[in-house]
Specification:
The chain is of the alpha/beta class. It has 12 helices and 12 strands. The N terminus and C terminus are likely disordered.
Amino acid sequence: MTATTHSAKDVLRIALFTYSTKPRGGVIHTLALAEHLQALGHAVHIFALGKDQNDFFRPTTAPFTIIPFGVLPNGIELDEKIKRYIQSYYEFLIAHQADSFDIYHVQDCVSANAVSRVREEGRIRWFVRTVHHVDDFVSPVLIQCQNDSIYRPNYRIVVSAYWRQQLQEEFGVDSTVIYSGVDRRFQPPRAVQRAAARSELGLDDAFVFLSIGGIEPRKNTVRLLKAFERVRRDLELKGRRTILLFAGGETLLDYTPYRQEFFALLSHSTMQPDKDIRLLGVVPDEQIPWLYHAADALAFPSVKEGWGLVAMEALACGLPILTSDLPDPDVRLACFPGVSALRGERPAGRPTERSGDRRRNAAAGRGRRNQAAPGCGRAAYRPEVQLGCYRAGACRLLPRVVGRAT
């Protein structure tokens, strides 16, 4: 990988990097951003760690490269997995990617650490990272991976004012806010659409709670299950049937103990799998609006979110949300078409006792604390805003790289 320059008449060549091909928030963001930038006439290429996959969870018009990664041995520790993911990503970029780009944009700590190593070797001059949220990891390697991915980028974008504040307070770095958006395919259902979706799932007259995101601590899934058991019991006494739908698969991280706790709780409860609790697994992307149409409420009790894409999708479909009450003094979000009730940016989470620990553990990998580029507005997601940030950052770091950004 080598950096190059183009004349002002050339379009931007933009490389986007993500850690997976599965329907996780950062991957969804990557695909949407790539397609919108492509629609503006820019040359975009996506790189993703694919393990045993050959394609993304949904079709995309953007060209992409899946970085192969074989199945890991059973019993391998999480820290070792993360090291191998980063190493595989880095080795592939060095060995196979000869093309050059104007913009290198990473979406997660794995790809950020790989691209950072490429920069350290002088192959590229700078890169930008979108920080969706900051986790409270306990794994030493993941803690370092996350910290390096925040300190080392030349330029940082965040998806909410809350996370800009947290990066400044916890890490001492500046960032620019570019809010996420919602796809226009998420619309309130017509009566016939809702009836068809509920009929297909066999929901009859049950009150249906929907949870999207998989079984993991950040999603507060165990507590949701406990709460649903109480609600189900209370409503059953009133003659009302309830169902909880879970949609989503596993993530890159190993949450086996948490999943075991979930299934142990379910097995010792009065709830019946496939009747009261339905685990749908990974649902095809084109069927996600159908789930919102079938449900009566979205259960979204997350303890931490970067933005909460499913919350916006649910609101866009006219679906009420039962969500965590987390404090955030900055409550601002653009109102999207069809979402008349949407007025406030849902909080990403509260500071934790480990906030100071993250800074101390990252002391060795801080790098420069660059300022946010001027002129990058705090508006709802638009590719033009993203391009403005690319241009501002690139012109400050490499004055001849970008030329025209629109």
